[in-house]
Amino acid sequence: MPDGLETDLDDLLKRIKSAIPQGTDVGAVETQPVAFGLKAIRMNLAREESMGGTDDIEEAISAIEGVSQVEVERVSRM
Fold first, then answer.
1. Beta strands of the chain (E only): which ranges?
2. Cβ atoms within 10 A of the Cβ of 2, count?
3. pLDDT score of 22
4. DSSP 29
5. CATH topology of domain 1-78
6. What contacts 49, CB < 8 A, 6 or more positions away?
7. If DSSP codes are grouped into helix, strand and coil, which group holds residue 69?
8. Is the pLDDT of residue 5 over 80?
9. Mean pLDDT of 12-37
């Protein structure tokens, strides 16, 4: 979730993709309206189970300027 309406979502998405740990593949990406003009970026990410959970991905995305919140909605095994 971006931290405000003024956040450039295209630029933010580029920075997110470059920050995601190696071995994590980016699938479908979409923006979803939240409220008052704010839009969330939703991403499908995939990685081998042997790489562990999602903590490192969440930390990498959370550390990016312009990101206010990271939420994992679903985890499945590959």
1. 25-35, 38-46
2. 21
3. 92
4. E
5. Alpha-Beta Plaits (3.30.70)
6. 77, 78
7. coil
8. yes
9. 94
